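During the first year of the project, the team set up a workflow for recording each protein of interest as an amino acid sequence followed immediately by a discrete structure-token representation. This format lets reviewers and collaborators read both layers of information side by side without switching files. As required by the reporting guidelines, we include two representative entries from the current panel. The first entry is reproduced here exactly as it appears in our internal archive.
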Amino acid sequence: MSFIRVWLHVVFATKNRFPYFNQSNKWEIINHIKSNAIEKNIFIDHIHGGNEHLHCLISLNGDQSISAVMQLIKGESSFWINRNKLVQGKFRWADDFYAVSVSESQIEKVRLYIRNQEEHHRKRSWEEECGEFMQKYGFTKSLG
């Protein structure tokens, strides 16, 4: 058996960054994503976000790719949200996502950042947060 620990901080947004999430449906969606991830052998350590995006701290195992894990999370949750009519209109995630590796020494810092998303977004907008990610990690395209 191989022993692998690859931590990722992943951020994904709704299509056109539309603010579909409110206090009641966001937690229902987050809880569903966590349950579905367990069924699919995806380890989500932390998940939280704003009205139009989510952050996840994920640990990949040896047979998982970032794109496959994100396809499972986003595709299934989008289908489930629409089937259960949790938002008005047709729900879609943006095609793209951000994913960066996280050092074991920074895990607690990322957990705290994800846990405090509501407080964080009272001070900083999604656009400002995206700009910070793009600058910090050298990305050239915004989500949405």
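The second entry, processed by the same pipeline in the following quarter, appears below.
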Amino acid sequence: MALIIPVLVRGINNLSDARYCAGMGADGLIFTLDPSLPGAVDVATVKELAGWVAGVELIGEFSATLPVSEINRLVEECGLQRVALRQPPTSPLSVPVLLHVPLYLLFDKRFTEETRAQYTALFPAGFALTSTLDSTLSDEQAATLASIAKHTPLWLRDAITPASLPTLLTQVRPAGLVLEGGDEIKPGLRDFTELEAVFEALEEE
């Protein structure tokens, strides 16, 4: 299934999600590997789930409390192609970074050319931004995000529904979208209603 924009799915913790999202055309699966974060999974789980899917990027999500050396170790052990971080690290990482930036900082225009240059130096393997939507964007807010997205890859997550997609895709033009995984009702049983609606809205005609 081909999608009109790249999609990542975070919070992957079960085989149902891993196989469904890969089959629906997701470009990457994000595993919470930092034990201090809710819903964290262990290395064995990542390896097991990764063994059932092909053609998707494996990404680990971490907080700012885990040492860079430990993140790099987990990158190697799990075969990650990228990491998602809540805050900038204290030293460079071995793979590209998805750095989360709160939406209010982007709207406050604190993300300047100087900030972009600092991140470019800090992330020699490359970086992109993620930010969380909490409501419908105004035209002014959409224009601000679009301006940032022209110069820096910007991935948006949360508050993503079939109804919100036209505005996001035509006005903001993000690099991609980050959708949310979920828990199984019981082993092998999962309700994909919300995810399916978004995937179908993103399907190429």
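For the second entry, the following points were noted during internal review. Residues 7-202 form a domain with the TIM Barrel fold (CATH 3.20.20.70). Helices lie at 15-23, 43-50, 68-78, 103-107, 113-122, 139-151, 165-172, 193-202. Both points are flagged for discussion at the upcoming steering committee meeting.
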